[in-house]
Fold this sequence. Notes:
- The structure holds 2 protein chains of 2 kinds.
- Chain A is mainly α.
- Helix content of chain A is 54%, strand content 4%.
- Chain A contains 6 helices and 3 strands, in the order ββααααβαα.
- Chain A has helices spanning 24-32, 46-58, 70-80, 89-110, 126-159, 168-171, and strands spanning 4-5, 10-11, 118-120.
- A two-stranded antiparallel sheet of chain A has the order 1-2.
- In chain A, helix 2 (46-58) packs parallel to helix 4.
- Chain B is mostly helical.
- Chain B folds into 2 domains: 3-173, Methane Monooxygenase Hydroxylase, Chain G, domain 1; 175-226, Ribosomal Protein L9, domain 1.
- Chain B is flat.
- The chains are: A mainly alpha, B mainly alpha.
- The interface between A and B is large, with 34 and 42 residues.
Amino acid sequence: MNGIELITDNIPSIRAMQRLSVPLWFALILKRQNKCSLVPPDWLNLKSLQDFYQYEVNELTSFAKLPNNWLEQSKLIFEYASDDINDEVYKLKSLVQDLKEIRMIKVQKGLQLINESHLQLDNLSLLEINEIRPFVVEIMGKLTSLDKSTSTGMEQDEMQYGDNDGDIEDDL
Amino acid sequence: MEFDDILEEFERETRSHKYNEVEVKRSDFQELQNAWISERMCPELLDYKQSLIDRILSRIRVQIEFIEMNSIELQTTERDIKLQLMIIESELDRVNFILRSYLRTRLSKVDKFTIFIRNDEDLVQRLSPAETQYMESHFRALIDLYNSLFLSQLPEQLQALDDTGGGISMIEEPDLDRPVFVKVINDTIETIVIGEEEIDLIPGSIYLIRYSAVQRFVYNQDVLLI
């Protein structure tokens, strides 16, 4: 096939039996037409997934460095290109599921640490963040406003029903 | 200079030009994705990415022209062009989706914070000319509607839409204290202080933190909203 100039990239001309790095969506179009086979990413095999899983089990306070969209990638590859994977797909699938679950449990444990100022969540993928986003943002917003109202409330108490516009520092 | 040298140089130049073009395209797309996600996650309206959007739009136009030119003679051509067209169309859809969502997100914020934005010249500067025009005419239409429906029946001192008296402001403002997820890109020298806590932002890390604390880093793109 001849090269194609796209909006976000240029695809070089493609010949048979050639290894090439292209965007995943593009590879999937070719794959669906049986025009190519996919080379799975280097983290998507039994060995590295097991390593990642071990890491998640051993390290209780941090997350393994998986690619930013590993869940999406693995789902697409399992769905459309499972015949290109060298390992047994069902084992990989269950490993990915295990990884997903143990990470979610760790996130939920980590949420105990939530306070009104901040929370650090390194190496969490976008999908996992979006999974907890509605809940966490709501709770932290509430904590923030609670924190504000208690601190201003205390100030007001000490001012003994003083005028709102008064200088707080002086009264303290 | 020999003839071959000239040819070689020419080839090198064109090749490096091609290479750069790919780099620009990729980084533009990355930037568009970042702008889109940031806009969706940010409580306030961010700067309009004028030059980026212009570049993307002009590339979209080229692709549409290509599709139109080639689909006319589709009956006669072979299958290769069909596949090519399909690839170009699906990419077009992908880019269009992000672009639309980006612009719509901005418009929904413009709708929500119209009065707040109109009161601040700096904020109006963040809009594109088309967005400013939209905001003005939408605002006009809304006021006309309110007036003809019920505002004219109310006592005069209650007719204002931007009343801030009485302890409650009628002007809707973005909640800058809302928590956001950010990813730190560059080293930030300053330490963030919230209450009694000091927070150092480490590059590569992901934080959940209130927007007001990282606002200035979002502006200069030291941190990315995700």
